[in-house]
Specification:
The protein is α+β, with helices and mostly antiparallel strands. Helices cover about 35% and strands about 20% of the residues. The protein is globular, with a radius of gyration of 20 Å. The structure holds acetoacetyl-coenzyme A.
């Protein structure tokens, strides 16, 4: 049975900040953000949006695009590290806003940026376990990345949501069953209860990410079938590689590490200048998947799937019948390397709304961004041209209230 992602839909919040403006305000050379981190813009949420509205809008777009009866969804998993309550899951709000069936299982998953992959794998296993019973799961990865103003993490903020329909009729990606996992307890990035901004040991987090990639990819590569021919590497078997991308330069560091492991494990492969060859491999296999995320920033657990949606949207027709490699990293930590086959029919589902979402944003200046960052979460009215389907109205009687405004 082929199980995987039938289609994806994304939602990017209404506001954005150009990083050249942030660089000027912080007295930083713009090249540091553009070339050093690979970032151009960051997505920001207006007061009327939070992680619930991001997730619900992505879910509504997916249900609309797939012409799906919500009653057909038997499992709703929301992956997020930006919850709005200690007990009530984001998925519960989303379940209500989307009008899903009362016979649907509903829960959140949290493990930093890994939770989206945990949700995807859980949903795929549930579909497989159903055998010939038709099972459809809605998986939504949604996050808002916040670091303290003026901190090194500040330019790597962002926000967004990706909804995925997981079932036995995948048209976007057929998931491999063999994956490589690596988990280790580390304090590289965390957010204590009560804090809105994350704490991070930046350079250590990069080292932890690369160690986790080494562990997960090595485990995955050992399971690869058919066995490698002399001189053949895993990179020869894929059209593209997608990495969790807190900032695009992280994917370049990751690819350099993967290539080193992969090519050194290929007996007979002759590489004279590894750095030059790895850079060429990055341009061919990785860079095309990073163009859109450079305009969104880190959307934590949605990041990898935003890259997948953007790649399929931009190049779907060319990728039919080709294989992709994917790497998911969640600080703390857990990581997974897996692969997927893009079905020949991908062109029918490849519009995930990436280009349209990016085109409809309002750019704010640094003063407005700082006011938003300092403001308490009160909810509010939708700004002019708002493209989301739901707004956060505010808190009444200690309960968060939402309203449908679009779609
Ligand atoms: N022109 C071009 N490049 C420049 C430059 C200039 N004028 N000045 C500096 N640079 C380059 C640096 O050489 C460096 O590149 P290399 O790493 O390739 O050497 C890059 O810009 C970053 O500069 P710094 O090394 O000075 O690092 P920083 O203090 O700006 O911090 C960071 C960078 C650690 C990523 C920080 O932004 C941060 O803490 N981000 C949040 C944590 C994070 O994203 N970690 C990633 C791994 S963990 C993970 O993936 C989970 C998650 O989502 C959080």
């Amino acid at each position: 049975m082929s199980v995987g992602i039938e289609r994806l839909a994304v939602y990017v919040p209404a506001y954005a900040l150009k990083l050249e403006d942030l660089a000027a305000a912080r007295g930083v050379a713009p090249e540091k953000y553009r070339d050093g981190l690979g970032l151009g813009e960051m997505a920001l949420v207006p007061p009327c949006e939070d992680v619930v509205t991001l997730a619900a809008t992505a879910g509504a777009r997916l249900i609309g695009a797939a012409h799906l009866d919500p009653a057909q969804i038997g499992m709703l998993l929301v992956a997020t590290e930006t919850p709005v309550d200690h007990a009530k899951p984001v998925a519960s709000f989303v379940h209500g806003l989307l009008g899903l069936s009362s016979h649907c299982r509903v829960w959140d998953l949290t493990h930093a940026c890994y939770a989206g992959t945990a949700a995807l794998m859980t949903a795929a296993d549930w579909v497989r376990a159903g055998g010939h019973r038709v099972r459809r799961a809605l998986v939504i990865a949604a996050d808002i990345a916040r670091y303290p103003l003026g901190s090194p993490g500040e330019p790597t903020q962002g926000a967004g949501a990706v909804a995925m329909l997981v079932d036995a009729e995948p048209q976007a990606l057929i998931l491999s069953e063999d994956t490589g996992v690596h988990a280790r307890h580390v304090h590289d990035f965390w957010r204590p209860l009560g804090r809105r901004e994350a704490l991070v040991d930046g350079q250590y987090s990069i080292a932890c990410y690369l160690d986790a990639l080494t562990g997960a990819f090595t485990a995955f590569r050992a399971l690869e079938r058919p066995p490698f021919e002399p001189g053949e590497a895993f990179t020869d078997r894929v059209a593209h590689l997608l990495y969790h991308s807190p900032f695009p330069k992280m994917a370049a560091k990751a690819h350099r590490r993967l290539v080193e492991i992969d090519w050194r494990a290929a007996p007979g492969r002759v590489v004279e200048d590894l750095d030059t060859a790895a850079a060429a491999s990055f341009r061919e296999l990785v860079a095309p998947g990073l163009e859109a995320i450079a305009r969104v920033g880190n959307c934590y657990t949605a990041s990898l799937y935003f890259c997948l949606a953007a790649l399929l949207e931009a190049q779907g027709r060319r990728l039919g019948g080709r294989r992709l490699g994917l790497f998911s990293y969640g600080s703390g930590s857990c990581a997974e390397f897996f692969s997927g086959l893009v079905p020949a029919s991908v062109a029918a589902v490849s519009d995930a709304g990436v280009a349209a979402s990016l085109a409809r944003r309002t750019y704010v200046d640094v003063a407005a961004y700082e006011r938003l960052a300092r403001a308490p979460e009160t909810g509010g009215d939708p700004p002019p041209g708002f493209a989301g389907a739901f707004i956060f109205e505010g808190v009444r009687g200690e309960q968060r209230r939402y309203a449908r405004v679009g779609i």
